[in-house]
Design the sequence.
């Protein structure tokens, strides 16, 4: 008897003994013959607690159950397990390490692809995609493929398919920036127009954005200019900080050689950290603890004029109370004139499939993905507040008007405006030391930004060298690196 996983891999290349290659039909056609017809299957999805895009996948699953019953003749139910961002990977890894089928489909953060793929815990999807035309989508940009699908970076192996696309966006108090009195006062103070349209912010650089933050920082009125993330939790300080570094022309590593030292810990990146820390004066007290939830709180309470937040959080940021007072725009560029650019962190999550699913659960999982990427499903997902990533949906002339953040999301999904960071299997360790170093400087525990960067670079260089990925270990200078 061949091991089940060996048999599954072989059959996947042939379309699961013809099952995967069976034509995927829409609900206008008659029920097709299906090997699971008459059966009842229970499926479980693991997703992110408190994260709307994750729950949307489950809330929409009854639609797939109806579809499967009508067209394939089987009954399927979905359970949902969840954990916060900071705990979800460990929850998935603990289960998968035992070859459990506890979670059949997992909503993974994009940076976990390597850590899940390297031990063989999730299924490589190249053959599945090749046998299912409905999974051969024209994605909106290569950024989608590189963020949610491929590991290792630059390779051709596909391990995930995008569940939720996500980019950074700037939420702006429309009622403030469109107020004629505020516009007049801003013009008088700075000699420039108060940015109040999408196009204004599309062209806005960080120097002029700082004027907006300064102008609206009025502690005596309970109003501050901005809320950005500085928290040590998960990747909250990392994402805006890397965005500023990239936008100023810096980098964080060489993904081909694993070299970090000398690339991350540069004087220019230190200046980017100094700039980011200086912006704390425009933010409410306690901003060094701000993550996603804290930003939502101060924004919906009307305490800040602008907020750098994920597009995926739009439904929480835009409430019935403030829905007419919010403008969602691209975040600022860095630099001046034609040289100015914006490169912000990608967010979002891919679907990945448990490699230990039995044949029935694997077939249902693939049926589910085929259904998920049908045009009517992706459009429904968008209408419920999700962010699809396929070109057909995003190119729909009505897409920009479906949600207030859609235009900014699509703008930032264009090539070169957003990028992901490491997909390496040692991602969590690299992130932990980075968050430690960034927040140590932001909170004043470490006085020098360069000192914090030296510490991070040396620690990350050691992690990658110990892994065998980096060709060089830390330099002798690292013996003195500390926070």
Sequence:
């Amino acid at each position: 008897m061949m091991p089940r996983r060996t048999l599954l891999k072989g059959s996947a290349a042939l379309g699961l003994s013809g099952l995967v290659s069976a034509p995927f039909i829409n609900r206008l056609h008659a029920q097709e013959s299906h090997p699971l017809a008459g059966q009842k299957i229970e499926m479980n999805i693991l997703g992110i607690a408190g994260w709307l895009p994750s729950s949307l996948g489950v809330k929409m699953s009854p639609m797939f159950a109806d579809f499967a019953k009508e067209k394939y003749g089987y009954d399927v139910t979905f359970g949902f397990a969840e954990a916060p961002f900071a705990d979800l990977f460990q929850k998935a890894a603990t289960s998968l390490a035992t070859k459990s089928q506890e979670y059949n489909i997992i909503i993974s953060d994009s940076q976990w692809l390597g850590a899940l793929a390297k031990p063989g815990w999730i299924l490589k999807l190249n053959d599945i995609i090749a046998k299912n035309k409905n999974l051969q989508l024209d994605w909106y940009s290569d950024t989608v493929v590189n963020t949610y699908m491929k590991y290792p970076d630059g390779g051709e192996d596909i391990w995930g398919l995008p569940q939720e696309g996500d980019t950074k966006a700037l939420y702006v108090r429309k009622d403030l920036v469109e107020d004629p009195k505020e516009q007049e006062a801003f013009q008088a103070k700075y000699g420039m127009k108060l940015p109040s349209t999408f196009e204004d912010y599309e062209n806005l650089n960080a120097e002029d954005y700082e004027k907006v933050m300064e102008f609206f920082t009025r502690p005596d009125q309970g109003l501050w200019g901005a809320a950005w993330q500085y928290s040590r939790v998960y990747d909250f300080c990392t994402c805006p900080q890397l965005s500023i570094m990239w936008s100023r022309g810096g980098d964080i590593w060489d993904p081909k050689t694993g070299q970090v030292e000398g690339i991350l810990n540069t004087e220019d990146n230190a200046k980017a950290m100094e700039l980011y820390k200086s912006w704390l004066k425009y933010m409410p007290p306690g901003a060094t603890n701000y993550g996603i939830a804290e930003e939502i709180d101060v924004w919906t309470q009307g305490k800040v004029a602008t907020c750098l937040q994920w597009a995926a959080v739009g439904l929480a940021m835009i409430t019935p109370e403030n829905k007419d007072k919010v403008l969602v725009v691209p975040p600022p560029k860095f630099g001046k004139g034609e040289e100015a650019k914006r490169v912000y962190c990608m967010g979002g999550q891919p679907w990945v499939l448990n490699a230990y699913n039995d044949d029935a659960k694997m077939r249902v999982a693939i049926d589910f993905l085929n259904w998920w990427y049908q045009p009517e499903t992706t459009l429904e997902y968008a209408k419920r507040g999700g962010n699809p990533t396929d070109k057909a949906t995003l190119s729909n002339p009505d897409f920009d008007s479906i949600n207030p953040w859609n235009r900014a999301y699509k703008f930032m999904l264009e090539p070169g405006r957003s990028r992901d960071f490491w997909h390496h299997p040692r991602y969590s360790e690299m992130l932990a030391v980075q968050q430690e170093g960034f927040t140590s400087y932001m909170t004043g525990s470490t006085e020098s930004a360069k000192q914090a960067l030296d510490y991070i670079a040396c620690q990350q260089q050691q992690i990658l060298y110990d892994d065998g990925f980096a060709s060089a270990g830390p330099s002798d200078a690292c013996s003195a690196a500390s926070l």
